[in-house]
Specification:
Layout: H1 3-23, H2 27-31, E1 35-41, E2 47-54, H3 60-63, E3 74-78
Antiparallel strand pairs: 1-2, 2-3
């Protein structure tokens, strides 16, 4: 694995840990799910928040722990900024 791949993997892990924290589930639980994230852009092209949609393949036991998850298995979350972590 190249150094660049290692950096990308580290950033991905940090992102998913922050995401799990925002959702109120563990990192390990998040890893059992499948999801898609879409940026909610304003007219000024700034990302204001993100829409997170879980697939039907995600474990219901995990999804049931996410407060605010809609019947369509989606939730709007703040833009996850990894720069705030450090």
């Amino acid at each position: 694995m190249s150094q660049q791949d290692s950096i990308i993997d580290d950033e991905s892990e940090r992102f998913e840990k922050k995401l799990a924290e925002l959702l109120g589930i563990t990192y390990e639980e998040l890893l059992t799910t499948e999801y898609e994230i879409t940026d909610n852009l304003g007219e000024d092209e700034i990302v204001y928040d993100q829409v997170l949609r879980f697939t039907q393949d995600s474990p219901r036991s995990v999804l049931d722990k996410i407060i605010g998850l809609s019947a369509e298995n989606q939730i709007t979350i703040p833009n996850v900024d990894l720069a705030e972590e450090e």
